[in-house]
Amino acid sequence: MPTLLVANRGEIALRIMRTARQEGYCTVAIYSDADRDAAHVVAADLAVPIGGNTPQESYLDIGKILDAAQRTGADCIHPGYGFLSENAQFARACEEAGLSFIGPSADVIELMGNKRQAKTFALAAGVPCIPGYEGAQDLAELQRQAARIGYPVMLKAAAGGGGRGMRVVQDESDFSAQLMSARKEALSAFGNDEIILEKALSEVRHIEIQIFADTQGNCIHLGERDCSIQRRHQKVVEEAPSPILTPALRQTMGKAATALAQACGYTNAGTVEFLLDSDGQFYFLEMNTRLQVEHGVTELITGTDLVAWQLAIARGESLPICQDDVALHGHAIEVRLYAEDPERDFLPQSGKILYWQHSFAEDQVVGSTSPAIRFDHALATGITISPYYDPMLGKLMAWGKDRNEARRRLSHALQALKLLGPQNNRAYLKQIIDHPVFAAGSAHTGFLEQQFSPAVAGSESVSRAHALACALLHHARIPAMHFTSGAANWQSGHLPLSREYRLSDGIHSFAVTLCATSTHHYTVTLTAEIRHTITLTSIANAISSSGELAVSIDDVIHPVLFHIGDKQLSMLFEQRLWSFTDETYMPVQPVSHSGTGLILAPMDGCITQICIEPGATVESGSLLATMEAMKMEHALRADGGGIVTRVNAYAGDQVHSGQLIIEIEQAG
Question: Where does a domain end: 199, 224, 247?
């Protein structure tokens, strides 16, 4: 039996293993200290600890991975996507160790993984490219070339992808600062600070062509994916096929993609990415030498298993079909579910999954009477979302016989997700899918910045949530003895009961008054004008620490998903995730209008830059330091003006969430 080591983690590893088992492979997982109890470890036939927590200490350590392969007798390695999947050094090391690397050759990865080299090669192959510059790296020459291209100009990390090391420069005055920032991020992410320039195109579509090539010289494409919904150059929603491509344009772009693949001697799965303007002109963007995160939507409309194809090609087999056999059926849309807080500038989140359940059927046969929903994930109640890795929780996909059906199914599936824990972007994604511009199929790469405004909770929704939170926290505290004789025990002296509470939503504290008239019926007063009556309709005794309830608020029944632990309440209510703390018996904190002067790390991560020294005078909003966490860079800024009195960290330090980084003695 062939043995496949998956050099990745989480849902990525699970996706690869699912197909590998069906194809008759023994599967091997590797895991860091943080992933000891992860789902991919449990799912594998064999699992090897590789130590460490950060990617550099674990999943990016080539030596540890090859050692794990040797110890388990693995004869092939699948890199998944992310981590080492586009690392030529890793592919070459696998080849030298006698292991079959599931992907293209190291030489091709090296050629196409560098944006400068790839663009030069694409131009030579006759593939249209965005006007730009790929030459000398000195500041004066780059500025001169930017002026020649014409602003706005895009700076791009030559060795990178995924939006890292990318900046849009609007005019020459900002060029130097943006170049420095892009180079720093590129060096941190890819170990290479080389930058290329491209003309920044606006209101374009991001179209990628899925290609496959075997070792016999056959190369085909499986249509396109539209990845235009992006935030900070990172994909948020993907769909296949594109709602704007004509069959003729699909054929033209597909031929360009396969021609490029054949010109560089490509084998296995790959993606050629283009930008498409409103005139129907397309330009080469980059080639990803791996399986893409969004490959699932292609599988749904073509009825294929692309991982099975990858394994077959690595075994030396020919492609199972030719270009004329490729047929696209229906439409599929995918969203990326992230542990991030859209209301705090999408700050990545970590922490425990308090409750997880879904109420839709997954992996149904496309075209069946059941909803065609697929969710690639590694979620389970009780697991911890680590701060060391990408915050993506999973990829939710829906198929329909047409785009509208797929969109409706996906919207409903997002609503059906029952997930409590770290803040996530579920509600944000649903708003995108339901937006009329997206529904019309006319969203371009500037959609999220130019056309989309996420809805915030209205005042009535907020007051209902506050009242419900008070009722749930109160109900959970009622001693069990009060329920032993039912409501009669309450009516013999315990009710009506009135109690003052003080709750916090993490930003503001608020006082509420609760009046209980039965074991599960409450009137909650927030202000003189705002009062809600709440009945916990589906229970008549003490509630558990988590679960689903039907609650009546002002005679309207609402579903609520909740978890209570240590005076903390998390609940999914009216399509939003809410978190509250019971501060009733905590000391009252003084109100500060100007900030504390104590700059804390917002999450676990690595300090990448300290921008000030003790004694420096800063203003509110001044950049003090930068840190990297969950594959993103975050700025730490002053919360008020004053003098820096202490710096407690250095560049390169690993810090924990809440750790004091900088102290400022604030003016006034």
Answer: 199
Which one-letter amino acid corresponds to residue 564?
Answer: I
Other Cβ atoms closer than 10 A to 485 = 11
In a domain, 541, yes or no: yes
Q: Is residue 425 domain-shared with residue 538, that is, in the same domain?
A: no
164 and 233 Cβ atoms separated by less than 8 Å: no
Helices (H), ranges, 270-340 = 295-302, 306-314
- Rounding to the nearest 10 degrees, give the CA dihedral for residues 327, 329, 331, 334: -70
Q: Please report the pLDDT score of residue 494 as a whole number.
A: 58
Give the H or E element holding residue 412: helix 403-416
Summarize the confidence of residues 303-329 as an average pLDDT: 97
Residue 515, judged by CB atoms within 10 A of its CB (0-12, 13-18, 19+), counts as middle
**Structure confidence at residue 162 (pLDDT):** 67
- Residue 107 within a domain: no
Its sign, for the CA torsion 54, 55, 59, 64, is negative
Q: What is the pLDDT of residues 297-315, one digit of tens each?
A: 999 999 999 999 999 999 9
The 10s digit of each residue's pLDDT in 414-465 is 999 999 999 999 999 999 999 999 999 999 999 999 989 888 888 899 999 9
Asked whether residue 571 falls in the same domain as residue 464, the answer is yes
Asked which of 407, 432, 451 is the last residue of a domain, the reply is 451
Q: Residue 602's domain spans which residues?
A: 598-666
Stated as kind and residue range, the H or E segment containing 516 is strand 509-518
Q: Are 643 and 665 spatial neighbours (Cβ–Cβ below 8 Å)?
A: yes
State whether residue 244 is helix, strand or coil.
coil
Does an H or E element contain 214, and which? Answer: none
- 267 in the same domain as 123: yes
Catalytic positions, written as ranges: 290
Range with lowest mean pLDDT among 139-153, 214-228, 355-369, 618-632: 355-369
How many domains, the chain?
A: 6
Question: In this model, does residue 360 exceed pLDDT 80?
Answer: no
Type and span of the H or E element at 470? helix 459-477
